Structure formats: C-alpha cells, structure tokens
C-alpha cells in the first residue's frame, strides 16, 4: 500500500513539473512576443517619420517651383497690365503675387526648425519683399491708368538683380532639400529592413507559441482527468458537510448581532447629523445677526455722529446744523428701510393689499424703469388683452419689479433687452409648485444677460446670497420677492442659462372678489408726498387726538410732533387707560395706537373701541406687527420710524376719510 501511495505521488509530481516548465516557456515566449511587437511598432513609427520627412522634402521642393512659377506669372501679368491697363489683368497679377507670398509662408513654417534653411528662407522673404517694392510703382501706375507711364517703371524693375538673386535662393533651398532627401531615403530603407527582420522573428515566435499551446492543451487534458478523480474523492467526504451547518448557524448569529450593532450606530449617526444641522442653523443665524449688527452699527454711526455734530454746531451757522441733521435723518431712513426688508423677508411685515391691475401698475412704472436701467437697455412689454386684477400690496409689487429690472441691468453691462410680460393663466392643482388649481396672473421678467450658473441657481432665493461683488448687493432682493409672493398666496420661480439670460416669473392669484369692497376693507398705507402733506393739518388744526403708546420716549416724540402740527393731545400708556379716557374725555377726534403693546394690543383695543364709538377714526402705528396684523383692516397704518411730514399726512388722511368725531360728553348725555 505504501508503494502504491509513493507511485501516485510521483505520477502527480511529474505532470506538475512538466506544467511548470511549459508555463515558464509560455511566459518567456509571451514576453518575447511583447518585446517584438514593441520593436516592430517602434520600427514602423521610425519608418513613418522618415517617410514623413521625405514627403516634407518633396513638398518643399514643389513649393519652391510654385513660388518661382507664381512670381514669373505675376511679372508676366504685370507686363500685360501695364500695356492694356485692364482691371482683370491687374487682378491676375495680385492673385499670383499673393499665391507666391502664401507659398513662402508655408516654406517658412516647414523649415522653421532647420537653422540653415531658415536663414535661406529669411533671405528669400527679404528678396521677395524687395522685388515687390520694385514692381509696385509699375502696378500703381497701371492702376491709375497713366498710359505708357508704367512701361518705363517695369523696364527699370526688369533691370534689377533682385529677381536672379531670388531664384538663386530658391535653387539653394531646393538643392539643400535634395541633398537631405538621399539621407532620409537611406534611413527609411534601414527602418524598412529592420521592420521586416522583426516581422520574420515574430513569425518564428508565433510557431513556438503554437507548439507551447499544444503542450498546454495536453496538460489541461491531464488536469481534467485529475479533477474528475478529485471530484470522486470529494463525494466520498460529503459527510463532512454536516458539521459545517453548525458552523454556519453560529456565523449567522454573529452576523445578526453585528447587524443590530450597525442599526444602533445608524441611529446614533442620525442623531449626530441632526445635531450638526442644528449647529449649522445656529451658525447661519450668527452670521445673519453679525451682518445685521454691522449694517445697523454703520447706520447708527451716521445718526449718532450727525446728531452729535448738530448739537456741537447748534449755535453756529444754520446750514451746518441742517447738513448734519440731514445726514442723521438719512442714516435713520436707511436703517428703517433695512428693517422693513428684514421684516418682509421674515414675513412679519404686514401686507397692505388692494385690488390692482399688474399691467396698469407696470405701465405706470415704465418711466421709472427707464431711469433706473439706463438707455442702453431696451424695455419691451407684453400685456394680456383683458388684464386681470390681483389682491396684493402695490408698493411691494413695484419694489419687486424694480428690483428685478435692476438685477437685469447688472446682468447686461453692454446693453440688451428687458422683456416684461403679464399673462392670464389657469393652472391645475400643484402645476405651479404647491399652489391649488385656479386662475393666476403670471408676471415674467426676462433679460438677455450673462445668466446664472447652475450651482448658484439653486440658491438665488436664499437670504443674503448674492453673486454681485462686495458692496453691490445685499442678497435680500429675490428672497424678499419670494416672501412677498408666498404671503400673497402665489409663487416665484427662476430659469436661467449661462450666456442666454435669466427669466424670473411671479405667480399671483386672480382677485375674483369685489375689488371695491376689498379695497375699502384693506388697511390703507399712509401716503407721503413730501412736506406739502403737513399743510393738510391746517384743515383740522386744534383737533383733539388720543395717543396710546407704551414706550414713553416714543409717546413724547409723537405728542411733540402732533402739538407742533397744531393738534391737542392726550396720552395713554395702555389699552385700559385709553378706554377710560375715551369714556371720560369729550371731543376726541382721532385715536392713534401702537400695535404691539403688553396686556392689550392695538388691534384688541380697536376691536373694543369700534362697537362703542363706530365713528371714531383709528390710526395704527407699527414697527413690527407679528400676529396682530389681521386686525388692521378698516384703519390707517403708519410704519415706524416716521417723520413729522408722514405723521401729518397719516393724520390728515384719517381725519379726511372719517369725518364724524366722537360726540361730546354732554351731547352724548342728551
């Protein structure tokens, strides 16, 4: 039995050794084959390069002949041109001369790497230009049709030695190329012979590889027989597989535990990601707070500095005092504008909607748009034949259109076309983002500017995001417009392509209700038309006004302004005190109340006053409305901060619209 085992081991080792030798031979043959292929490729490339040099030499020699021929034809055509002064003959001369110039440029490009030939071509170019200067007077005389005047000039040019020297230079270039041609032909022949020799070696090597393949096939057959024998032996040991089942079950249990651990890690990772997102939100809030603080500090610096300088110059020239006060007022106005834009973005600034026609509003803005965007941009409008109305804040809509026009102007520095289109559409449910089905007015502003890149297009509605340089934009324009559209029950969208322009679309729901009733029910903004509105106080001078304000400094300022305008005033620090004064004081013509107050808001006070005194006009003063904005209907609205002129206009409007006054106490008793 032991001898049989030894024989089987020797029989198995012998094929293994044979296979090893054959495999080694096959590997060496493969390496030799790869080497021969590279050598043949290199020889073919060298042969192709040599052939390319031959073709270049033939090309240069041919171009030298073309140059000589073109110059000869040009001078012959010039002779005919001098004699007959025919324009067609002159054209032949100029065409042949330009053809010779083109061929010289080509030779100069082909021989730029050969120093000797490049020098000859440089001499050729110089002689060619010199010959051109010699022939130009005769050509110019023929072109002017001076009769036989050009013949003498042509004879004079013919006696020059430039043409023989030019042809000698061409012959020198061609001779040099012919001398190089034989060397390059010899190189080509060497590479061809070498490639043929390598190809012959490749054929013998292919025969050897074929013999090796036959040997490998024999070994593969023997290996197949061995695998059959091994399979039979494996079948006899199938019982060992039963023991593997237990191992598989144990491994499965381990994998199940690992899966549970992975799920726990996923939960922890999701919590960590949520925490990270919260941190990022806080970071964004911090950046926003820092930006607002920076802007407000700049504006407050203007206000404080202007007031301080005005106080220092109080006893000085009046012009300097007014100058510093104007600067302070400008800073305060800019701060108020920034506050309104932030409130509009946060959707905390109340809308003052009314029934308006976007087409008529935009048509009335055309002069303003022309001044804002300049003369280099053409404004094109397209309106629907029967314009629909929308129930929206006209001031906010004007600001949105003007902001889009300014953005389009910045995107078209070299001029272009701005198209404003207003269309009436009917949209299905969720056809426009998440808007319900219904009628909408589509306002589309399209420019032919530089467009917006795809990575920036997704962020255009983000607050404080802008692609403009520092100091050229706040990044609140589009986000404010988006907030206005959503507050108005609509939507805003942007489409853009680099180099093709940008299109911003505003969708506002159609106003299908009674426009007049809606306009009367809506809170009306106080219209300020300059200091002339202050004159309106004269018609109501002496009227008694109740001011309700929880901040004593604001109350003193408001009362002082009203008394400056000639009104009589009462003040209350809250709603309860105001109701007591209304019940005890007579002849109160107007109630001015802050909106956001502790214990009782201005809208709650108005709700309590209207049933008791329906004829009493109410003027709301607000800097931030919040949730109290729904109760502003039926009264005038004045935004903080306000000037004396705007206060005068608001009071005059409220008293004009609401003529009746609170009856006197005695009259009420009767």
From TrEMBL:
Residue numbers of 4-aspartylphosphate PTMs: 594
Sections of the chain in a coiled coil: 245-282
Domain Response regulatory: 544-655
Molecular function terms, GO-annotated: phosphorelay sensor kinase activity
Family annotation (SMART domains): HATPase_c, HisKA, REC
Catalysis performed (reactions): ATP + protein L-histidine = ADP + protein N-phospho-L-histidine
Transmembrane annotation, as ranges: 20-42, 201-224
Major enzyme class: transferase
InterPro entries: CHASE3 (IPR007891), CheY-like_superfamily (IPR011006), HATPase_C_sf (IPR036890), HATPase_dom (IPR003594), His_kinase_dom (IPR005467), HisK_dim/P_dom (IPR003661), HisK_dim/P_sf (IPR036097), Sig_transdc_His_kin-like_C (IPR004358)
UniProt cross-references to PROSITE patterns, sorted A to Z: HIS_KIN, RESPONSE_REGULATORY
Name the record gives this protein: histidine kinase
């Amino acid at each position: 039995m032991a001898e049989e085992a030894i024989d089987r081991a020797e029989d198995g080792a012998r094929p293994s050794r044979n296979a090893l030798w054959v495999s080694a031979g096959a590997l060496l043959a493969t390496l030799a084959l790869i080497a021969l292929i590279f050598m043949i490729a290199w020889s073919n490339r060298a042969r192709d390069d040599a052939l390319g040099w031959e073709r270049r030499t033939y090309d240069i020699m041919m171009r030298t002949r073309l140059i000589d021929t073109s110059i000869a034809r040009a001078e012959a055509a010039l002779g005919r041109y001098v004699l007959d002064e025919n324009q067609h003959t002159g054209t032949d001369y100029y065409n042949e001369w330009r053809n010779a110039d083109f061929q010289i440029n080509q030779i100069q490009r082909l021989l730029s790497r050969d120093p000797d030939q490049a020098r000859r071509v440089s001499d050729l170019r110089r002689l060619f230009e010199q010959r051109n200067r010699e022939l130009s007077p005769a050509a110019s005389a023929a072109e002017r049709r001076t009769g036989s005047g050009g013949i003498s000039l042509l004879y004079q040019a013919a006696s020059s030695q430039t043409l023989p020297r030019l042809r000698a230079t061409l012959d020198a270039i061609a001779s040099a190329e012919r001398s190089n041609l034989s060397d390059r032909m010899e190189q080509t022949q060497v590479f061809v012979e070498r490639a043929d020799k390598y190809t012959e070696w490749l054929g013998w090597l292919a025969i050897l590889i074929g013999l090796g393949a036959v040997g490998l096939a024999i070994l593969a057959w023997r290996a197949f027989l061995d695998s059959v024998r091994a399979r039979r032996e494996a079948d006899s040991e199938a019982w060992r597989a039963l023991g593997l089942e237990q191992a598989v079950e144990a491994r499965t249990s381990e994998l199940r535990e690992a899966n549970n651990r992975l799920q726990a890690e996923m939960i922890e990772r999701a919590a960590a990601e949520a925490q990270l997102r919260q941190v990022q939100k806080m970071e964004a809030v911090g950046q926003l707070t820092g930006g607002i603080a920076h802007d407000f500090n700049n504006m407050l610096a203007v206000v404080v500095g202007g007031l301080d300088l005005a106080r220092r110059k109080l006893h000085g020239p009046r012009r300097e005092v007014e100058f510093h006060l104007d600067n302070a007022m400008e800073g305060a106005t800019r701060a108020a504008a920034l506050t309104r834009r932030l409130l509009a973005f946060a959707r905390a600034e109340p809308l003052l909607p009314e029934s308006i026609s976007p087409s008529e509003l935009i048509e009335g803005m055309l002069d303003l748009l022309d001044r804002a965007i300049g003369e280099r941009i053409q404004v094109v409008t397209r309106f629907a034949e029967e314009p629909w109305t929308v129930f929206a804040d006209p001031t906010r809509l004007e600001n949105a259109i003007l902001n889009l026009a300014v953005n389009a102007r910045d995107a078209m520095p070299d001029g272009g076309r701005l198209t404003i289109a207003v269309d009436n559409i009917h949209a299905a449910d969720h056809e426009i983002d998440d808007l319900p089905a219904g009628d909408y007015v589509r306002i589309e502003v399209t420019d032919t500017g530089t467009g917006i890149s795809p990575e920036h297009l997704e962020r255009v509605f983000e607050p404080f995001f802008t692609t403009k340089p520092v100091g050229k934009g706040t990044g609140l324009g589009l986000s404010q417009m988006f907030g206005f559209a959503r507050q108005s029950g609509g939507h805003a969208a942007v489409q853009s392509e680099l180099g093709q322009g940008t299109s911003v679309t505003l969708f506002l729901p159609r106003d299908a209700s009674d426009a007049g009733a809606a306009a009367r029910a809506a809170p009306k903004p106080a219209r300020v038309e300059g200091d002339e509105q202050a004159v309106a106080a004269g018609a109501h001078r002496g009227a008694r006004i109740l001011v309700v304000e929880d901040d004593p400094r604001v109350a003193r300022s408001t009362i002082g302004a009203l008394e400056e305008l000639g009104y009589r005033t009462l003040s209350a620090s809250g709603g309860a005190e105001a109701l007591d004064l209304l019940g005890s004081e007579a002849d109160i013509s107007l109630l001015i109340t802050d909106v956001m107050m502790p214990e009782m808001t201005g809208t709650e006070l108005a709700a309590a006053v209207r049933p008791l005194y329906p004829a009493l006009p109410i003027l709301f003063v607000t800097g931030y409305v919040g949730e109290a904005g729904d109760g502003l209907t039926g009264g005038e609205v004045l935004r903080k901060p306000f000037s004396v002129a705007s206060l005068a206009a608001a009071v005059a409007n409220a008293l004009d619209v609401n003529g009746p006054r609170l009856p006197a106490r005695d009259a009420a008793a009767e």
